[in-house]
Amino acid sequence: MKKNLHFYLTACAVVLVMFASCSKEDSNLPDEINQVDISEAGKNPDDLLLSNQNDRVALSGYLYTQTNATGNNQVMIYRHNWAGALTYVGAVSTGGSGNGKSLSSQGALAIDRQQNRLFAVNAGSNSLSMFSIDPSNGSLTLLDNEPVLAVTPISVTVHGDKVYVVNDGSNNIRGFQVTGGNSLLLLSNTSKVLSSSGAGPAQIGFSPDGNWLHVTEKNKNYIRTFPVNASGYALPGSNSAAIGKTPFGFCYGRNNTMVVTHAEANAAGQSVGASYSGNNSNSLSALNGAVATSQSASGCVAGTIFGRYAFVTNNISNNISSYYIAQSGNLVLVSGNAAATGNAPTDICLSNSNLFVYAINSGDGTISAYLRGVLGTLIPIGTTSGVTTFGAGLVSY
Questions:
Q1: CA-CA distance, 78 to 106, in Å (whole number)?
Q2: Cα–Cα distance for residue pair 340/319, rounded to 1 Å
């Protein structure tokens, strides 16, 4: 297996060089890819990284997802080896309760790799849990579980010592501060409302500079932006109209570009993605319009380390789409069907090494694993069972 992976990585480097030396006219790639030179003259850092993975130990890491079970919500721990294969390690209680059904969100877990912390929402008990991560073995220790004083938290984000959740039942956001390294303090005056009742939030996330919070509202077709002051307190929000219907998951690409999925009310074959500028301000602007995937129910999205690629799960089409993010921030479809998944994929993430992609399949309780190839391609590794069908969140460490 090691020999096979080494051969593959070497082949990736060769293909990248070959692609860089070809003109667009000589390429056999689909027309939509020829809009930009994805190889970046052979210097695309996300692709070059594939040929520089010499330390097999560094390729290993951990995945976390939560059961979202009623009564006793737990975070499940998986270890992936240097080849991307998953092994179940165990589960740790959050000290709270899930709601036992789909959260219809992205970001039910958030990770702070600098401080080795993991955060989990408890949608049933309306609380937020904080864990410490042991860097030596990926194990979790519950540090705190605090009420959010709101109803149905579904997504969480962290920047420095500030942590925010968005609450579906209360149509608001709430903020916390990590104090003393092991406690969560609910911050007063951080409860800020979404655009209206029934907004249907899908994800909350800090902007790259930490000065803004973004929330996608899938029922109102808004991306709501909240300024965050120097003390970490959110101020009243404003709305930016999404370019498509049902904005759902998002990630940040190169040059502070925000890549957002739009499920288009789950209409068959109508899902689109879009990139937005202005992430470090309260004025989001779509860059090159809606980019269609010809897939159904696009939901969660994850980006590569250097922000050149974004991978999107399609909940009804049962596959993953891949995009390239150009220097301008324009979004280019690489493949509407980059790889098949299990039944009803939801959350997606990349490994810490930037080499592997993982997706949870809520319909059959599995996790699909892929080896990332050059030019936004994915190669299936295998499938791991044992995940609850209403599980939520997926992050790597």
A1: 19
A2: 4
CB 108 within 8 A of CB 393: yes
Show Cβ contacts of residue 136 under 8 Å, excluding neighbours closer than 6 positions: none
**Could you report how far apart the first and last alpha carbons of the chain are, in Å?**
23
Q: Are 343 and 365 in contact (CB under 8 A)?
A: no
Q: Are 337 and 377 in contact (CB under 8 A)?
A: no
pLDDT score at 41: 86
Does residue 371 contact residue 356 with C-beta atoms inside 8 Å? yes
Rounded to the nearest 5°, which phi and psi values hold at 275?
-110, 145
φ/ψ of 177, rounded to 5, equals -125, 135
CB 37 within 8 A of CB 326: no
Say yes or no to pLDDT of 15 above 60.
no
- CA dihedral (274, 317, 84, 139) positive or negative: positive
- Domains of the chain by range and CATH? 59-396 (2.130.10.10)
Query: In 3D, which of 275, 290, 159 has the Cα closest to residue 226?
Result: 159
Q: How many CA atoms lie within 13 A of 318 on its CB side?
A: 9
- φ, ψ at 228 (rounded to 5°): -120, 120
pLDDT, tens digit, 9 for 90 and up, residues 2-11: 444 444 444 4
**Amino acid in the structure at residue 241:** A
Assigned token pair, 365: 């309780």
Please state, in angstroms and rounded to a whole number, the distance separating the CA atoms of residues 350 and 80.
Answer: 12
| H helix runs in 196-308, sequence order | none
CA distance 13 to 326: 20
* Confidence (pTM): 0.92
